[in-house]
């Protein structure tokens, strides 16, 4: 039996529905309420990737996978590595793609977390750099790890205060190459209408105004190199980072 090739149609429908979902304020509010309930159970902390704890919402793991598969970066820089699961996740995709490496930056790489990463089968694809993400010294170490001409993606998931994220955007944004993404994690913190609605099962609490989404919007006022991927962000309900996936459109 011959069946019609509907792949293009299928993708077009996905895009249409994602954009429509992005405009559904009621669905987003319901998602936010659900996330606040889940936060009581440390929901983002319940997962692992190939045996290593990954502090992410499942929706963000899928979204990041879509970005990496579609753009196939040579280098992925992640600030804020914690236990390493997100680096392992991204390295596993690069392994299948057949090229690329992950550079992880954290102010505090604990011995047991380093041990987990260094003993993992994907460790040859990973470089760990310990230090505050925005100092000149750390940035120089990161830049030294980027081969000439490499395509570069960045994930910012360290200190979520507005000023730190804005600093990181100014430091790491210019490293992202055309066609690649910068992902600003935990933008969700900017969507709570008051502090009572802010997810608070964290070592630190950030309130609307002092969080990554405000920093991202300030950065977008400064640069025209990035634009929001509306279709990807539209479907980001039950995500920590709605609006946080930006595509580099400039040289
Ligand atoms: C939310 S966790 C990262 C989670 C990780 N990306 C994952 O998906 O599993 C935040 C991490 O940022 C690190 N951090 C906090 N402030 C930092 C800074 N100024 N520079 C670099 N890392 C920082 C913390 O030590 C912590 O490990």
How would you sum up this structure, described in words?
The chain has 251 residues and is of the alpha/beta class. The protein has one domain: Vaccinia Virus protein VP39 (Rossmann fold). Helix content is 41%, strand content 15%. The strands form 2 sheets. Strands 5-4-3-6-7-9-8 form a 7-stranded mixed β-sheet, sandwiched between helices. Strands 1-2 form a two-stranded antiparallel sheet. A hairpin with a 2-residue loop joins strand 1 and strand 2. Helix 3 runs parallel beside helix 4 and helix 7 packs across helix 8. The mean pLDDT is 94. It binds S-adenosylmethionine.
Might you state the CATH topology name?
Answer: Rossmann fold
Q: SS-based structural class? A: alpha/beta
Bound molecules: S-adenosylmethionine
Series of secondary-structure elements, N-terminal to C-terminal: HHEEHEHEHEHEHEHEHE
Count of extended strands: 9
Alpha plus pi helix count: 9
Output the strand order for the largest sheet.
5-4-3-6-7-9-8
> Could you give a short account of the major beta sheet?
7 strands, mixed
Q: Gap between N and C termini, in Å? A: 48 Å
Quick one: CATH superfamily?
Vaccinia Virus protein VP39
CATH architecture: 3-Layer(aba) Sandwich
Helical amount among residues, as a percent range? 40-55%
Overall pLDDT: 94
What fraction strand? Answer: 15-25%
């Amino acid at each position: 039996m011959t069946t019609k090739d509907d792949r293009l149609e299928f993708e077009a429908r996905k895009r249409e529905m994602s954009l429509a979902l992005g405009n559904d304020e009621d669905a987003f509010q319901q998602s936010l309420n659900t996330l606040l309930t889940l936060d009581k159970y440390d929901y983002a902390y319940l997962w692992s990737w190939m045996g290593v704890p990954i502090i992410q919402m499942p929706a963000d793991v899928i979204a990041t996978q879509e970005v990496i598969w579609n753009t196939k970066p040579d280098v992925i820089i992640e600030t804020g590595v914690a236990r390493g699961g997100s680096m392992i996740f991204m390295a596993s995709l690069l392994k299948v793609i057949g090229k690329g490496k992950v550079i992880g930056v954290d102010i505090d790489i604990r011995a047991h977390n380093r041990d987990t990463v260094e003993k993992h089968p994907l460790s040859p694809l990973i470089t760990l750099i310990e230090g505050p993400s925005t100092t000149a010294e750390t940035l120089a170490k990161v830049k030294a790890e980027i081969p000439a001409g490499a395509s570069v993606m960045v994930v910012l998931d360290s200190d979520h205060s507005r000023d730190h994220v804005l600093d990181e955007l100014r430091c790491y944004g210019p490293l992202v190459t055309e066609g690649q993404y910068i992902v600003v994690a935990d933008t969700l913190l900017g969507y709570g209408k008051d502090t009572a609605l802010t997810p608070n099962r964290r070592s630190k609490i950030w309130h609307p105004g002092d969080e990554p989404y405000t920093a991202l919007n300030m950065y977008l006022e400064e640069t025209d190199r990035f634009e929001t991927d509306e279709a990807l962000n539209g479907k980001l309900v039950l995500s920590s980072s709605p609006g946080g996936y930006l595509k580099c459109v400039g040289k």
